[in-house]
Amino acid sequence: MIDDDEDVLLAAKMLLKKQGHHVIIEKNPKKIPFLLNNDSYDVILLDMNFSKDITSGKEGFYWLEQILAHDPTAVVILITAFGDVEMAVRALKQGATDFILKPWQNEKLIATIATAIRLKQSYNQVDKLKKAKEMLEEQISKPFGDIIGDSGSIKEVFALIDKVAKTDANVLILGENGTGKELIARAIHQRSLRKDNSFVSVDMGAITETLFESELFGHKKGAFTDAREDRPGRFELANDGTLFLDEIGNLSMSLQSKLLSALQARVVTRVGANQAIPVNIRLICATNMPLHKMVQEGTFRQDLLYRINTVEIRVPPLGERVEDIPLLAQHYLAYYAKKYHKLVTTIASEALDRLKRYAWPGNIRELQHAIERAVIMTDSATLQESDFLLSRSLTSGPANNTLNLDEVERTAIAKALQMHNGNISKAADELGLTRASLYRRMEKYGL
C-alpha cells in the first residue's frame, strides 16, 4: 500500500493483518520501482493524490502507468478522498482493477481485496498454463513416445516401472547415452497418479551456472539483463506433476547444493524475489555417470544421491537387448518412410543380421540415425546392407577379422570410449595416450 498519510497506512495494515495478509506499506511513491524489483505482490493499493497535487489524481495515474509498464498483470486498486464517477471510469480504462474512496468501510475494503487476490491468482494460473502448454506442445512434437522391445532385459525395466509408477517415490534412471532414459521417465509419469498434470523435462547438462536458478526456480522481470518478464521456473511448471532432471551427474558441487535445498524444503524463490513458492513435484532423475563412484571421489553429494535414488532403474544398452533390434529398426523405418515420403517398407535379412552384429556404442539413438540416413539415401523399397555405413571394427563376426593396424587402433579407441561412457580423459588413460593424441585419432577415424 502506497499512501503519504501515515495514519491511513497504519490503520489499513492493522486491519489487513487481522485477515491474514502480509502487508508492505510505503509513504514515498518514488520507491515504487524499487519495491516492484524487490518482490512480487498479489495486490497493490495506490493512493491517487500525494503532496504535490492533492485533488487531480495525476500522480496516481502516473504511478499506475509505471506499475503496469513493469508488470502488465499487476492488480492495482486506486484510493482517493477526492474521487468521482468520471475519475473511477478513467482509472478502470487505464488498467486499474478497482477504485475505493476514503474513508472506506472496512468490510468493503476487505471484500475488494479478496476479489482482487482471486483475480491475481487467476492471472498466475493462466500464465502457468500458458507456459505449460508451450512445453507440452514441444514435448508432443517429439517422436517415438513408446518404449519398443520384447527382450528379457527390457521386460525387467517394464516390471520396475509398474511397481514404482503409482507411488511418489523419487526415481534415478541409470544408463548409457541413447538408451532411452527419458522415455522411461515419461512411462513412469503416464502410469502415475499425476498423469493428468505436467511432465517437465530439464537437461541439466545444458544449463549454465549463471542460468541455473532462473531456469529451475524462475525469475522476476528486471532481475537481470535479459529478464524482460516474470517467468516461472521448471519447478513451478511441474507443480502437481513430474519434474525430470536429465544428466544430473553433470552438475557442479555448488549447483548440487542449491538443488538439494529446493528438494528438501519443497519451496523455490524466483531470482529477484523474496517470496518463497511451495511446490509439489514427483522427482525423476537420470544420468550416464557413475554417481556412486562420484560420491566416493567427492564429486557428487552423498545426501543429494540419497534424496534422488529411492528407487534405481538401470536401462540396458542396446548390446544387451539384441533381439529388440529388428523391432526398433522396423519402428524407425515406418516413421522415417512416412516423414520423408519414401516407399521403403522392409529391411533385407542380411542388413538386419549386420544391424544385430554391430556394437551400437550410441545405442538406440545411433540406430535411429542409421535408419534415418538409410531411408533418405536408398532408391529401393527394401533397405540393403550397403545402405548402412557401419564400421567394420564395431561389427562382430567374419567382417571384423582383420589385422589392419588402422582398424585395430580404431577398434581399441571405440571400445575405450564405450567403456568409459565417452569420458575422454579416462579413455586416454586407458589407451596410454594424451587427451590431444586421442582427439587427433578420434578425428582421423571419425569417432
UniProtKB/TrEMBL annotation:
Keyword vocabulary terms for this entry: ATP-binding, Nucleotide-binding, Phosphoprotein, Transcription, Transcription regulation
Gene3D superfamilies linked: 1.10.8.60, 3.40.50.2300, Homeodomain-like, P-loop containing nucleotide triphosphate hydrolases
Chain ranges of the Sigma-54 factor interaction domain: 147-376
Record InterPro entries: AAA+_ATPase, AAA_lid_NorR, CheY-like_superfamily, Homeodomain-like_sf, HTH_Fis, P-loop_NTPase, Sig_transdc_resp-reg_receiver, Sigma_54_int
Gene Ontology BP terms: phosphorelay signal transduction system; regulation of DNA-templated transcription
GO MF annotations, alphabetized: ATP binding; sequence-specific DNA binding
Record PANTHER family: ALGINATE BIOSYNTHESIS TRANSCRIPTIONAL REGULATORY PROTEIN ALGB, TRANSCRIPTIONAL REGULATORY PROTEIN
Protein name: Sigma-54-dependent Fis family transcriptional regulator
Species this protein is from: Chryseolinea soli
Organism taxonomic ancestry: Bacteria, Pseudomonadati, Bacteroidota, Cytophagia, Cytophagales
